[in-house]
Amino acid sequence: MVITNLVNFKGFTGMEMQQTRYFLAVCETLNFTRAAENCAVSQPALTRAIKKLEEELGEPLLLRDKRHVSLTPFGEMIRNQLRKVDEAWRDTLASAKAFQGLERSVLNLGIMCTVGPAMVMNFLNCFREANPGIALNIKNMDVDELDSGLISGAVEIGLFGLIDSMDSRFSVHRLYSEPLVAVFMPGHRFGRMKKVPFDALDGENYVDRLNCEFRDALADLIEKRGMQFEIPYVSEREDWIQEMVAAGIGISIMPKYSVTLPSLQCRPIVKPVVEREVALVTLADRKLSAGSEAFLASARGFVWPKP
Q: How far lies 132's CA from each of 95, 102, 106, 108, in Å?
């Protein structure tokens, strides 16, 4: 007899998970007394449950005599399948407890260092209200660190600013589009413009963002158009970039929602318009924790503001 799916096997649908647990305990100990102790149940109750299981499945699972307990060939097969059932049930209980906030869990969230907080804070506040049992551990990372963090499992979800598609190892959940803007101090000539043509940047002092995901593409565009930038300073720090622009050292090009310094002004860049997609990214073949599933579900259901 071959059983490919226990759920569809005649008689199995009435079996209780308790019977599964008792049977697997006997398989592990090959002793009814020790199995009953491990399950915190009386031996007669355990014996009755296993006998009922055998009746429901229609075949004996165990061979018993006064000294020994062993598995029948049918019992060996059923043990392997019931182990999977038991593991799935335990995973289900763990997921249910996490979703219900019965257990406190920590979600490691990696955020690309160029993604600003402005568009994300309302979502995080809503997620916190709906999932008070899930604590976020937010890590600031560059793109290479975020890639390796997802692969190693150091972070479960990454918040990326994407300009290209990611390879098949990753699952991408897009949230919103974000344009690049010219950033400058008050009184700059760009303040008189509603939009800044890319060519108008020619000749400006430019504070260079080393972690900018558009850096190579912008450099190619500048070269093709024969433009010249004077670069007085470069930095990996987004906050330092903004402070240097505010101090009048130069202008910069940044994603719109990464500009957090109130004293700065910004205008959309056009001809061409350059924008990125901000997205949550997970490893495609890794099973997500209940916290990660809840986070992604909340992000999909959230109404993200239009740029």
A: 15, 10, 11, 15
Percent of the chain with pLDDT over 90: 55
Q: Distance between the two ends of the chain, CA-based, in angstroms?
A: 62
pLDDT at 14 exceeding the cut of 50:
no
Name beta bridge partners: 70: 63
Q: How far apart are CA 285 and CA 170, in angstroms?
A: 8
- pTM for the full model? 0.64
pLDDT tens figures, 217-257? 888 999 999 999 899 999 999 999 999 999 999 999 999 99
Distance CA 111, CA 106 (A): 16
pLDDT of residue 102: 47
What's the rounded Cα separation, in Å, for the pair 212 and 236? 9
As beta bridge partners, residue 197 has 270
Res 213 pLDDT > 80: yes
Q: What's the 3-state SS for 282-300?
A: EECCCCCCHHHHHHHHHHH
92-101: average pLDDT? 69
Average pLDDT of span 11-38? 80
216: Cα separation from own chain's centroid: 28
What's the mean pLDDT when you consider all of the chain?
87
The pLDDT, as a whole number, for residue 103 is 58
DSSP per-residue string spanning 220-289 = HHHHHTT---B---EES-HHHHHHHHHTTS-BEEEEGGG---TT-EEEEEETTT-EEEEEEEEETTSPPP
Query: How many residues are present in the chain?
Result: 307
Are the C-beta atoms of residues 101 and 131 closer than 8 Å to each other? yes
- DSSP state for residue 17 in the 8-state scheme: H
Enumerate domains of the chain plus CATH numbers: 6-99 (1.10.10.10), 105-176+277-301 (3.40.190.10), 179-274 (3.40.190.10)
